[in-house]
Design a protein that fits this description.
With 91 residues, this protein is α+β, with helices and mostly antiparallel strands. 32% of the residues lie in helices and 30% in strands. The chain has a four-stranded mixed sheet, with helices on both faces. Helix 2 links the parallel strand 1 and strand 2. The longest helix has 12 residues. The relative contact order is 0.27. The mean pLDDT is 91.
Length: 91
Amino acid sequence: SDAEQLFTLASSALAAGGRVVTYDPCFAPTQGTLSRFLVSRDRGRHVRSSDGYEMLARRVFPHVTATVLEGHLRIPYTATVLSASRGRGPG
């Protein structure tokens, strides 16, 4: 997939100890109706759950954390912040 190719490219470009951080709209069980509607209309064609983004990153990176954000914008919106690295340490 394009997303996996992007993670592979990012991995090859990272300095030792570096990490990739992404912010993506996501679907979540706790998500409200309006937030789900807005996320479903996002211009991305492959909006996933937080677990889906994490699984995608784990194809390339051994160390991945995903955090779901809700209530962080002035509009109802649900997103995942993903942190991925090749080495030990946070994210």
